[in-house]
Structures are given as structure tokens and as C-alpha cells.
Design goal:
The protein is of the alpha/beta class. It folds into 2 domains: 21-40 and 272-322, no CATH class; 43-268, Type I PLP-dependent aspartate aminotransferase-like (Major domain) (Aspartate Aminotransferase, domain 2). It is built from 11 helices and 9 strands. The strands form 2 sheets. The chain has a 7-stranded mixed beta sheet, sandwiched between helices. It has a two-stranded antiparallel sheet with strand order 8-9. Strand 4, helix 6 and strand 5 (187-191) form a beta-alpha-beta unit. Helix 1 (41-55) runs antiparallel to helix 8, helix 2 (67-77) packs parallel to helix 8 (256-267) and helix 3 (92-103) packs across helix 7. The longest helix has 19 residues, at 274-292. Bound molecules: pyridoxal-5'-phosphate.
């Protein structure tokens, strides 16, 4: 049988394994931080009717610039954003990939703060971009000084900041983001995949966009919107950054179905985001109850909680799995 290693694959990909969170059929699936709620039935019906309308013209390529969708994303985010400041792709993973295609590449370097989202290093690998990781402070917190020092030591072209951070849940202060921006001439990406679940002490990094053309904020409909299967991630940034994304995107990368489904969901954003309050209550309950059980939960602004104090995590994982969790 032919093995991967028998193929004339790029040296940098030899011996690598793909992203592999388990996809198990269990009653209570929590391992990829999806929204555990289904979308409401009336929203589902509206999505289907928009897909039905879109199929009539499916012999034609979709709107390459998806201006209707970008307008709806701008309105959803607020902050007086214009459609020209918005961009979208098939999940924020593709957004990040396009950022690396445009601003990374051979001879270039990206910096992250570990532990953080595992896709950053995999996307860097695919884009032939060196990926380096710096340490966090106690309890996985970041400070402006830690960020400044890591940037000074590594001179990255791309700084990846995840707020709140996956897998620790740690929120990031605006002062950290401002410090990163001032310390580099490169691109500063703030991945706000879980922003809607925040306690709200830290405003979105979108508030820092004016006069910061190298600041990019990535968002997704996969978590708060309960829309992971539709694959819709998006970016808020200077219109010049959007021009850079246009250089590397594949033509017509967002299908007519994706655009129609995302537009329908955004028209129902209040209804879809109603689940966020419920998840926040459960998140905060877990923070209290885990501590009462003798574990050590970390502060979290996300829809998940990291906790320490488990003697044998693998045994815990298997025991929960046996109970359908
Ligand atoms: C889940 C997640 C995403 C979302 O990826 P999509 O491609 O939009 O589904 C992005 N960043 C982080 C940190 C995540 O945890």
C-alpha cells in the first residue's frame, strides 16, 4: 500500500498528522466547543427557503464580492463598520489561512502564545510560514510586557492573539492588543471566535480598529450562532486588508448556498444568540461547581471551562465517554 511518505510531498509536510479532534456520535458532544443548541425551527425553515431561492440561479457563479452578506455582517457587528471593512470565508479557519497566504509565506514568521488554538501552527505549516510560540504568565494570562518582549525577541510578521483564548478561556485586555500593535510593524490578528460569550469586561478589539490598518479581527458563526456546519467565518479590518484577502482567495470561494444560509441566519441573529445567555449561565455554574468539587477552574470568557486537578485526564475522558459525554 502506498504511504504518504512514499509520495513526493513537500519536505515540511513529511511525517505530519492532520487536525484530528475525535468525531464521535455521542448524546452530549462537547469536544469542539460547538453551540450545544440546535437552531430554532422557524430559523431553519427560513434558511431552507433562502436555499431554495438560491438554487434557481445555481447555474451561475455566486456574487464573488458577497456585498449583501458583508453588509449584514457589518450591521451585526456595529461599531459603524462599513461592508468594505468586512470579509468572509468558509469558516474563520479559511480566514486565517488567507491571512497567512497574504502576510506570511516562506521566510516569514508568525507568533502565538501557548497553549492556544492548534490550527494556527497547522495553517502556518500549510502556508510555509515559520510558527513560534511564547510562554504565558501564571494561569495562562497575558500582559502587555509579555507580548512586547515576545515580539521584540521573535520579530514576527504575524501576531496571533486569541481572545478569549482556546483552550484556556482567558480573556485578553485591550491594553495587550494595543501593546502588540505598537510593538510590531507586522499584522496583529485577534481571533474572537468566542467573543459573544464574554462577560463583557473587555470590549471587542473591533473598538481599536480606527487608525490601525494592521489590526485584523476574526470572528465566526460556528459558535455563538450555532452555525458550525454552514462554515462561515469573517474578518473586520481596514478595506486595504480586504484587498489583500482578494488577492489570495479562490474566485467564488463562498458558494451561493453559504451566502444565502448566512444571510438568513444574520436576519435572525437575536433569536440565534438567545442561546448565548443560557450557555453563559451554565459556564458560570460550572466555574462554581467545579471548584466546589475540588477542581481548579480557570477564569473563562468562552463557552468552555479549563480546569486542573484531574489525576488522570485520559481515564476521565474515557469514563465520560462511556456515559455518552
Ligand atoms: C472554533 C474556533 C474557530 C472557528 O473556526 P471556524 O473555521 O470558523 O469553524 C476559530 N478560532 C478558534 C480559536 C476556535 O476555537
Amino acid at each position: 500500500m502506498t504511504e504518504l511518505s512514499d509520495l513526493p510531498i513537500r519536505d515540511s509536510l513529511k511525517g505530519r498528522t492532520p487536525y484530528g479532534a475525535p468525531q464521535l456520535q455521542v448524546p452530549i458532544a462537547l469536544n469542539v466547543n460547538e453551540n450545544s443548541h440546535r437552531i430554532p425551527e422557524d430559523v431553519a425553515v427560513d434558511v431552507v427557503s433562502r436555499l431554495a431561492a438560491a438554487v434557481i440561479n445555481i447555474n451561475r457563479y455566486p456574487d464573488r464580492e458577497f456585498m449583501t452578506l458583508r453588509g449584514k455582517l457589518a450591521s451585526y457587528l456595529g461599531f459603524d463598520l462599513t461592508p468594505e471593512q468586512l470579509w468572509a470565508a468558509n469558516g474563520s479557519n479559511e480566514i486565517i489561512q488567507q491571512i497567512f497566504q497574504a502576510f506570511g509565506g516562506p521566510g516569514r514568521k508568525a507568533l502565538g502564545f501557548k497553549p492556544t488554538y492548534s490550527m494556527y501552527s497547522l495553517i502556518a505549516l500549510g502556508a510555509d510560514t515559520e510558527y513560534v510560540e511564547a510562554e504565558r504568565a501564571d494561569r495562562y494570562e497575558l500582559t502587555p510586557d509579555i507580548i512586547r518582549n515576545a515580539i521584540a525577541a521573535n520579530q514576527p510578521n504575524i501576531v496571533m492573539l486569541c481572545s478569549p483564548n482556546n483552550p484556556t478561556g482567558t480573556p485578553l485586555s485591550l491594553s495587550c492588543i494595543e501593546a502588540a500593535y505598537e510593538a510590531t510593524d507586522g499584522i496583529v490578528v485577534v481571533d474572537e471566535a468566542y467573543a459573544e460569550f464574554s462577560h463583557g469586561q473587555e470590549p471587542s478589539a473591533i473598538s481599536l480598529l480606527p487608525n490601525r490598518p494592521r489590526l485584523l479581527i476574526s470572528r465566526t458563526m460556528s459558535k455563538a450562532f450555532a452555525f458550525a456546519g454552514a462554515r462561515l467565518g469573517y474578518l473586520a479590518a481596514d478595506p486595504a486588508v480586504v484587498d489583500a484577502m482578494r488577492l489570495v482567495r479562490l474566485p467564488y470561494h463562498l458558494s451561493a448556498f453559504t451566502q444565502a444560509a448566512a444571510e438568513a441566519a444574520l436576519d435572525h441573529s437575536a433569536e440565534l444568540l438567545a442561546t448565548v445567555a443560557d450557555i453563559q449561565v451554565q459556564r458560570d455554574r460550572l466555574l462554581i461547581e467545579l471548584e466546589a468539587l475540588g477542581y481548579d477552574p480557570y477564569r473563562s470568557d468562552a463557552n468552555f471551562v479549563l480546569f486542573a486537578g484531574v489525576d488522570d485526564p485520559n481515564t476521565m475522558f474515557e469514563a465520560l465517554l462511556a456515559r455518552g459525554i
